Amino acid sequence: MDNVSRSDHWHLLEREDSCLVVIDVQTIFLDKLPLDWRAPLVECIDWLMRVARVLDIPIMATAENIARVGPLVPELAALLPTASPPVFNKMVFGLYGQQDTREAIEASGRGTFVLVGCETDVCVAQSAIGLRVAGYRVCAVENACGSPPPNHEAGIQRMRDAGIIVTSLKSVYFEWVRDVETHHRVMAELNASPPAGVTL
């Protein structure tokens, strides 16, 4: 894939070109976060996965070293489309550095990857930068990623410095839906309020 120009920062996300990537949302990583961050982070990721399903945006999920660390949290695993592969057992920090995850990225046919999950400064950042170097457009959702402070903030800054689009759950949602009619359709199909702290 040709390298993406830095001017891609100025283009809105296109749902037809997007893939949502859920990275390593496992209990061991959630337990590192401040207590009041844990449930809201999972709720934000859960909601964005539901939006992606309504909009037919593919979802890819990873979990790090499942045998030792444990699976993706069940509430998110339950939202993965039945037609998708199982959760990828990721044995590297940057997902583009592993053959099966790299092949899944390439086979998706998508050019934009929207990243959420744990940990912001390690697996999310390394995955984002690896995808960016490979020529993909990459977006990290700041309020749907987590690392214990101050590492979350450091990871966000590292990604910004590398040319990754850093944005919010609300912004991703409205760039994906684009118009009032689609917004109302998605909200009706979701039949669920946005996550706490997110006002649409």
Brief overview:
The chain has 200 residues and is α/β, with parallel strands linked by helices. The chain is built from nine helices and six strands, in the order βααβααβαβαβαβαα. It has a single domain (6-190), classed as Rossmann fold (3-Layer(aba) Sandwich), CATH 3.40.50.850.
Question: Descriptors for this entry?
Answer:
Rossmann fold, 18% strand, 9 helices, alpha/beta, Isochorismatase-like_sf, 6-stranded parallel β-sheet, 200 residues, 6 strands, Hydrolase_YcaC-like, single chain, disordered N terminus
Description:
With 200 residues, the chain is α/β, with parallel strands linked by helices. It has one domain (6-190): Rossmann fold. The chain is 43% helix and 18% strand. A 6-stranded parallel sheet has the order 3-2-1-4-5-6, with helices on both faces. Helix 6 links the parallel strand 4 and strand 5. The model is unreliable at 1-6 (pLDDT under 50).
